[in-house]
Amino acid sequence: MGLMERPAEWQGGSKPPPTPNFAPSPSRVFEPPLLLGAMMRDGDNSIPDAQPAPMVIDVEFEEQEVQIPQSTEFGQAEIREPLDLPRAAPTPDGRARIVTVINQKGGVAKTTTVINVAAHLAIQGVKVLVVDCDSQGNCATGFGIDKSRIRYGTRTLMLAPEDAIRARHATGVENLHLIVADRQLVGIEEELISQLGRERRLAEGLEALLPHYDLILIDTPPSLGLVSINALVASDSVVIPVQTEYFALEGLALLASTIREIRHRLNPRLGVDAVLLTMHAPTLLNGQVAAQVRETFPDLVVDPPIRRNIRLAEAPSHGTPIHIHAPKSAGGQDYLNLSNALMKVWGFGVKDE
Ligand SMILES: Nc1ncnc2c1ncn2[C@@H]1O[C@H](COP(=O)(O)OP(=O)(O)OP(=O)(O)O)[C@@H](O)[C@H]1O
Ligand SMILES: [Mg+2]
Known about the structure:
This protein is 29% helix and 11% strand. The protein is of the alpha/beta class.
């Protein structure tokens, strides 16, 4: 319990040495930073270092891990109309790809996916910026950052784009910066509503940061309000996590039509990169829902599903991504596989195992 201050030697900049909390374990799955493809730029010192972030760990939960086998049976699907969704185009050279993780249904593992995919890519050498657009501020917690002590965050990014550079904070993972959301984001939709260009505020805020990262990953709130619309307008593509439970498909038609509408009216680049099956368990119901999602989004579902795993649920209480907390757990392995699959989709090189 209690506050864990960031050590003094972290204060210096965007590539802090790992703290004991984040020290790579000898058993970690990745080699040291390697690659990358065409988009990786070395020695880029043209913007100031990201701000150091105050770290906090509240409670460290640990529970018995239940082993769930990865199932290959997906059950019978009801006949459904496939939802037609455009695929995203490749990223223009020389700037970050912007990807929004979105599903207006709550608790489907959006934030868990953002944190763990971002961390996996960052340790492979991809320069990643996570932008939390949810006033719950779960991304900061997941990285062990005390958001109550952060002054410049996503609100700054959207309302004062000239200050975007100061809103970045270093995390305990090398190559990974975070723009923190917190309660300051509550009410921003009402503030924006009377402003011109209200759907493009996030895109404008990110503009100055694009040359300095390879990937900008945006976490969204469980709603399709103006903040989520801003994220879609700023993005090259979306990733949609779907929990393989009953009700999962309700709302996906609305999400699909929102994506199509934004592509038509506000952002012709926008497309879908992947649909993820999350918190999957080997039950008949989970299998049936997975089969329905496959029929609804032909060719977009990434296999295998992410299994329900207690290590993933407890990792945020340690303020660490899963590759540090429990890389060998089912959750660690599933997010490793997913991250490698997404690296290919996004055009970053993946080291062969
Ligand atoms: N594969 C998994 N196995 C077990 N628990 C998981 C898994 N994925 C996520 N969780 C847990 O489920 C809860 C919801 O996940 P998460 O916060 O990532 O969802 P979300 O979509 O971001 O939610 P919200 O809509 O509120 O932002 C969290 O407590 C998280 O730790
Ligand atoms: Mg979330």
